[in-house]
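## retry 2 of 3
previous attempt timed out at serialization; input unchanged, resubmitting
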Amino acid sequence: MTSTPHPFRLYPAIDLIDGRAVRLLHGQFDQLLTNELDDAQARAELVWAAGASALHVIDLDAARTGAPAEPNVSVLAALAAGKPTGAILQVGGGLRSAAAVEALLAQGVDRVLIGTMALRDPVTLRGLVERHGSKIAVALDSRQGTVRVSGWVEDAGIRVEDAARGVVELGVETLLITGIDRDGSLAGPDQALLELVRTAVPAAAVIAAGGVTTPADVQTVRSLGCAGAVVGRALLDDPSQITALLHAAE
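## retry succeeded, writing output
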């Protein structure tokens, strides 16, 4: 698979539950992974200090409820205010209305990730893309080939490649593709899934998530023509890895 013209970025990840920085194993809310560094702002500052140019944040509470709420709303506002000039703050989770998307963008978030709404309300998605262009991205989370929605608990019944084609036809330029069974597992990226999506929508910027753990994993994702990779649990387990991971993304 040839590379895309999109610059490659590493996206260190923070997931929020009740204002704390956590990770989930396989997307299961009853399998919470955390450590003593659960302050989201402190975690973000470490990421920026290491030289990262992007940060990926998911509001897991909102993903379950469908409505962003405190304390995560204030945490996201602080993260947007504290990011370096030129860096990308990418945020998703529970964005199921235009108002929720607009609120995040007004706070200074650079890119929002729309999941459930992208499949259930394509008219609203198209309108957001028309207003905000590349600031609107779509997250397609796949388990066994089909897209999961509502915080990964519901099967939307659509193949991931078909969903990718559909949202790209609406003008979406960036897709976050997550292999749920790899998420938080340290098992490496789902190469078959990424190749499937890259083939279906070759012009889109595809960001890989789920299982990306080592510098070699980052290089594998790059070789598939993806535009980025999200790294979460690997940094939760060993924050010192960020330097090697960023080097692999250069």
